[in-house]
From TrEMBL:
It comes from Anatilimnocola aggregata. The keyword Oxidoreductase applies. PANTHER family: BCDNA.GH03377 (PTHR43818:SF11). One of its GO terms (molecular function) is nucleotide binding. The keyword Metal-binding does not apply. Coiled coil: none annotated. Residues 137-265 form the GFO/IDH/MocA-like oxidoreductase domain. Its EC number is 1.1.1.292. Keywords: Oxidoreductase. This is 1,5-anhydro-D-fructose reductase. It holds the Pfam family GFO_IDH_MocA. Residues 8-123 form the Gfo/Idh/MocA-like oxidoreductase N-terminal domain.
């Protein structure tokens, strides 16, 4: 392993998906050095250091970014810090991998895109939707093959009881930490845009039936992020799209994207992990297209891009900040539609 191939990485926020996916997968890639970790507390950072082998623990994130020995920064915090950390890292000459969702809102996303475009020699990547990684090739091949026919309607069903505990408040339910992001709406936004195109216009209705919850400290907290979302609109392809998301669905765990075409209907059952195509008149006339999907290679894709950038070669990741910003545009439009009680054209932004 040459020094040209060695990539030195620092993490700012190393919990959640960082421990589930990013760190285990990075450890499998030759030439990776974990330099520093900065978590919300020194104790948390020390646990991460002991578990994953970071060289040191920082209590100030600026030190990891300013370190000339660091090549890349993984931003694993909640969305409220994504813009500040990502822009600071890019300005310091670091490649950046940012955990999803990209930012708090559309304005922040645009600032992150501008910072990335000002440093084209630096890789910028957002963690992609796991649905995209696993199933995108199968879906795009189906759409290109003509077996589905002309895409007419897209339907999304995402329901769980994740928000239903009145005595539990997740960071995802705090506007100050999560911004305009809502449950898994952003994950589906990215997936639908990649598979079927962006919304041209949309109308959204949101609700917060469980308005007040009790925190772990026993304090009452007003919930501001919607627990139910219903939206519909027109995609750039001309297909109609309707979505229903709920975090208060008792006994209903669903995660599906259905593509209705002129020659068939494709159901992507994301919870059970299978893609089927119905092309006959009988509901039993279904073909199993895929129940395996593609492997998760996100960390390898980022490292490959960093090494290519070092050699002065063109690099490519999916999504980069520019692509990731497009689902934040949808989240902004959804918010504006629901709060202003109107249909929103995305060309307004």
């Amino acid at each position: 392993m040459t020094d040209q191939d060695r990539v030195r990485i620092s993490f700012i926020g190393a919990g959640g998906i960082c421990e589930q996916r990013h760190l285990p997968n990075l450890q499998q890639i030759p030439g990776i050095e974990l330099v520093a970790v900065c978590n919300r507390s020194r104790e948390s950072g020390q646990r991460a250091q002991q578990k994953w082998g970071f060289a040191r623990v920082e209590t100030e994130w600026q030190k990891g970014i300013d370190d000339p020995a660091v090549d890349a920064i993984f931003v694993g915090t909640w969305p409220y810090l994504h813009r500040e950390l990502s822009i600071a890292a890019l300005n310091a000459g670091k490649h950046v991998f940012c955990q999803a969702r990209l930012s708090m809102d559309w304005a922040e996303a645009r600032q992150m895109v501008a910072a990335a475009q000002a440093q084209p020699q630096l890789v910028n990547m957002v963690c992609p939707s796991p649905f995209r990684v696993r199933w995108e090739r199968t879906i795009k091949q189906l759409l290109a093959s003509g077996r589905l026919g002309e895409l007419q309607t897209v339907s999304v069903e995402s329901t769980s009881f994740a928000n239903g505990n009145p005595n539990q408040v997740s960071w995802r339910e705090e506007r100050e930490l999560s911004g305009l992001n809502i449950m898994q709406v952003g994950i589906f936004a990215e997936t639908i845009q990649a598979w079927c195109g962006e919304y041209q216009s949309l109308a959204a209705t949101t609700a917060i039936p469980l308005r007040e919850k009790t925190t772990a400290a026993g304090e009452k907290q007003l919930i501001q992020i919607p627990q139910i979302v219903s939206l519909s609109g027109m995609l750039s392809s001309g297909a109609i799209c309707r979505e229903y998301h709920s975090g208060l669905a008792i006994g209903s765990e669903r995660s599906e994207i259905t593509l209705f075409g002129s020659r068939g209907t494709c159901v992507a059952n994301l919870r059970e992990g299978r893609i089927t195509l119905a092309s006959g008149t009988s509901p039993h006339d279904q073909t199993l297209l895929d129940e395996t999907g593609d492997p998760w290679r996100v960390e390898q894709e980022f490292i490959d891009a960093v090494r290519a950038a070092r050699r002065g070669e063109a690099w490519q990741v999916s999504p980069d900040f520019a692509a990731g910003s497009r689902y934040m545009l949808k989240m902004q439009a959804l918010h504006d539609s629901a709060t202003q009680l109107r249909t929103v054209k995305l060309s307004e932004y």
